[in-house]
Amino acid sequence: MRASLILAVMMVAAPSALAGVLQCKVEGYRNDVFITTSPDTNQNDGHYARIGVSRGIGDRAIVIVDRTGAQTFIELNIDDTPIGLWTLQKDMRLVVSNHSIDPSGGVFAPSQYTGVCTRLR
């Protein structure tokens, strides 16, 4: 119960604490990736961060901040299946872990990349 309450508080508090736009260069990615947090997203839901190739547009992401200050963005595809973890350390280094899930629930095509982000605002 206590852990659930702490997680719920972190999920509610995280978007307002992280408001802004990050521009990230990720090894193995041709284009920069933008991580946009509320209220800078241009989507109507307002509850999700966005990960994509332009500001405020892209896959939805849930933001979790751990006790050390690292931020994890759980990237969701269109049917709310988690497809990636984007972990941003306090020093702005980034670790990206991606995967796909087949219809039977199996994970395939796992990959991991590193990068660095710059806060645009």
Description:
The protein is mainly beta and 121 residues long. The chain is 13% helix and 51% strand. The protein is built from 1 helix and 8 strands, in the order αββββββββ. An 8-stranded antiparallel barrel has the order 1-2-3-4-5-6-7-8. β7 and β8 form a beta hairpin. The longest helix has 16 residues. The N and C termini lie far apart (36 Å).
List keywords for this structure.
1 helix; disordered N terminus; 121 residues; mainly beta; globular; 8-stranded antiparallel beta barrel
Set out the fold topology:
Elements: H1 2-17, E1 20-26, E2 33-37, E3 49-54, E4 57-65, E5 71-76, E6 82-88, E7 93-101, E8 107-119
Antiparallel strand pairs: 1-2, 1-8, 2-3, 3-4, 4-5, 5-6, 6-7, 7-8
On the 0 to 100 scale, the average pLDDT is 81
- What percentage of amino acids are in beta strands? over 45%
Task: Count every beta strand, where a strand is a DSSP E run of 2 or more residues.
Answer: 8
Cross-sheet strand order for the largest sheet: 1-2-3-4-5-6-7-8
Uncertain residue segments: 3-17
Count of individual helical segments: 1
Shape: globular
Largest sheet entry: 8 strands, antiparallel, barrel
Q: How far is it from the N-terminal to the C-terminal residue, by CA?
A: 36 Å
Question: Residue share in helices?
Answer: 10-25%
Q: What structural category arises from helix and sheet content?
A: mainly beta
Q: H/E series, N to C?
A: HEEEEEEEE
CA radius of gyration: 14 Å
